[in-house]
Specification:
23% of the residues lie in helices and 29% in strands. The chain contains 5 helices and 9 strands, in the order ααββαβαβαβββββ.
């Protein structure tokens, strides 16, 4: 998976490759899809949600440049694999999941792996952890039109990964806090993710 899917997609960060190698992805895949654990595709979860393809997970982790000492907010726990990787790269992860069964399942897997620096929240990501500041924010669902709903949680020099637009050609972007009121946006690549639940689509501009 690493050599045939992830490296060819320009993921060369040694720390990211190592954490993916050490995190048993097959544990996070629903039992009926175990044979797809290392395939280059999205894996269905419940409620119409998906685990991202391995190369997208890796590219996101590389773009975020997660390091020891970082506090991380993950929007969308999903299967929990990215949660585990973020936890192993950082000091602490707060992860928010809309669906209770997905949150509970991911938490049980991280307990088995003895990953203890994660706090799980179930509910609306727009309201959970709203008063906290983070060095890294990973939004693992898309915004049809970009909205600044998470910007106030991004600390100085913080990085946020977000996907905007409509299928099939959405834009993965990295937003970096450059000053208290300013963000720099870098477009990374095209992809497609399910929309963020609870976020209405206004008539707003895109980054």
């Amino acid at each position: 998976m690493i050599e045939q899917q992830i490296r060819p997609w320009d993921v060369l960060d040694a720390g990211v490759l190592e954490v993916i190698r050490l995190t048993p992805r097959e544990l996070f895949v629903p039992e009926q899809h175990h044979n797809l654990a290392f395939s280059d595709l999205e894996i269905p979860l419940s409620h119409g949600q998906y685990m991202m393809a391995p190369k997208l997970e890796a590219r996101m982790l590389q773009a975020l440049q997660v390091k020891p000492g970082d506090r991380v907010l993950e929007i969308g726990t999903g299967g929990g694999f990215v949660t585990a990787c973020l936890a192993r790269l950082s000091t602490h992860v707060d992860t928010v999941e809309w669906f209770e069964d997905l949150s509970v399942r991911a938490q049980s897997i991280l307990v088995k792996l003895e990953i203890q620096n994660v706090s799980f929240f179930q509910g609306d990501a727009l309201s959970e952890c709203a008063d906290q500041q983070y060095d890294v924010i990973a939004v693992t669902a898309s915004m049809p039109v970009y909205r600044d709903v998470f910007e106030s949680r991004l600390a100085a020099d913080g990085r946020m990964f977000v996907v905007t637009g409509h299928a099939p050609a959405m834009q993965a972007q990295l937003l970096t806090r450059v000053d208290p009121k300013g963000l720099h946006c870098t477009t990374l690549f095209e992809t497609s993710l399910p929309p963020l639940l609870g976020l209405e689509e206004p008539g707003a501009f895109q980054l």
